[in-house]
Amino acid sequence: MKNIKINTLNELKSYAFKKNIECKLLLNNGSYSKKNITFNPTNKNIWLIINHIDNSTIEYNTDIDFKNKYPLFFKAMNKGALILTN
What we know:
Layout: E1 4-5, H1 9-18, E2 21-26, E3 32-40, E4 43-51, E5 57-60, H2 63-69, H3 71-78, E6 82-84
């Protein structure tokens, strides 16, 4: 799969519901932050974000929880800086 820009939460959900996705958040200085995004297998309302740099996993219980606790992620998405890589 070639790189695909994710522009909305609904787009992100549609890919993440199908499988564990890998994506890059493009940063201002030309570098990026890699993350895997999926859902809890027993509760599809819970987002799981796995950070590649330290292999940590963060859970967000709802879409609103995700938006409120990780606003920079959505700022990057709105700027076209969230890229699906797998």
